[in-house]
Automatic annotation (TrEMBL):
A Pfam family this chain is assigned to: Cytochrome_CBB3
Protein name (record): Cytochrome bc1 complex cytochrome c subunit
Binding site for heme c 1: 69, 72-73
Post-translational modification: Binds 2 heme c groups covalently per subunit.
Any one Gene Ontology molecular-function term assigned to this protein's record: quinol-cytochrome-c reductase activity
Keywords (A to Z) from UniProt: Cell membrane, Electron transport, Heme, Iron, Membrane, Metal-binding, Repeat, Respiratory chain, Signal, Translocase, Transmembrane, Transmembrane helix, Transport
Phylogenetic lineage: Bacteria, Bacillati, Actinomycetota, Actinomycetes, Propionibacteriales
Catalytic activity annotation: a quinol + 2 Fe(III)-[cytochrome c](out) = a quinone + 2 Fe(II)-[cytochrome c](out) + 2 H(+)(out)
EC number: 7.1.1.8
Matches recorded under PROSITE patterns: CYTC (PS51007)
Species, as recorded: Kribbella caucasensis
């Protein structure tokens, strides 16, 4: 048998070896090893660096959360609060980075005191700290992400888009925010805040996450281009001047009628009283 093998030419001998049952497996293993070595040589430096930076940001957000948020929202964001006499905040698991960016970026959180609604105020945290908090909460469970800048950029919005945004706003938002975005009162001491001066990113995040009593306008309800058109309409409202001189809060006929009654009718009543008083004095002077 060995003599027969030796009689084979080198090419025929190698061909016979390749036809062995384990030859395919050996080739596959060598191929995987080659691909893995190539990936290890070129890819992981950036991937490891990105993962390390993200992990560091999440860890920083966790520390900030434990100091500034855990007393109300729980040490693990489960809600309920852990400090005696502290507000019982809701669970933040699954709210996503967009909700944190909105609440903390607009200064609504951390809350100064309990109330029916948290007002907008200057933010307490820096932008880097806000991003770290958002990254930590986003790591707990999937949720809406912070939108990219192009999602709410309306610098090149057309008149058609502004008009369409106005139609969407009047259909979905005026019941609470007023047709001019000036806000309005709601039951139980709550209110819809004014939308004037709101950052476009925060306006997009509010529609995406539904803060406080506001409904959620997900991408299935209002598509991303719909949200962008609404923001374009709000920007146009802020730039619009009041043709009559006084906007009166743009609250419509109620404020205009009240102003006309108090000022117009009030002025007429004052003039009538003044005329009557002068007439009485004139009669008294003649009688003397």
């Amino acid at each position: 048998m060995s003599e027969k093998r030796l009689s084979l030419s080198p090419a025929r001998f190698l061909s016979a070896r390749r036809r062995h049952r384990s030859a395919g497996l050996v080739v596959l293993l060598f191929g995987l090893l080659a691909v893995g070595s190539a990936y290890a040589a070129f890819a992981p430096d950036n991937a490891v660096a990105d993962n390390s930076a993200q992990s560091q940001q999440i860890e920083e957000g966790k520390k900030l959360f434990a100091v500034g948020c855990a007393s109300c929202h729980g040490l693990n964001a489960e809600g309920g609060g852990t400090g005696e006499g502290k507000m019982a905040g809701p669970s933040l698991i699954g709210v996503g980075a967009a909700a944190v960016d909105f609440q903390v970026g607009t200064g609504r959180m951390p809350a100064q005191q309990p109330g029916a609604q948290m007002p907008r105020k200057p933010p307490v945290y820096t932008q880097a700290e806000i991003e770290a908090l958002a990254a930590y909460v986003a790591s707990l469970a999937p949720g809406p992400a912070v939108p990219a800048e192009e999602a709410y950029d309306v610098s090149k919005a057309t008149d058609e888009q502004v008009t369409r945004g106005g139609e969407l706003f009047r259909t979905n938002c005026t019941a609470c925010h007023n047709f001019a975005g000036k806000g309005g009162a709601l039951p139980n001491g709550r209110y819809a805040p004014s939308l004037m001066g709101v950052d476009p990113k925060h306006a997009y995040e509010a529609m995406l996450t539904g803060p406080q009593q506001m409904p959620v306008f997900s991408d299935q309800v209002l598509q991303p281009e719909d949200k962008r058109d609404v923001i374009a309409y709000l920007n146009a409202l802020q730039e619009q001047k009041d043709p009559g001189g006084f906007g009166l809060g743009r609250l419509g006929p109620v404020s205009e009628g009240l102003w006309g009654w108090l000022v117009g009718i009030g002025a007429l009543v004052c003039v009538a009283i003044w005329i009557g008083a002068k007439g009485v004095k004139a009669k008294g002077a003649k009688a003397e």
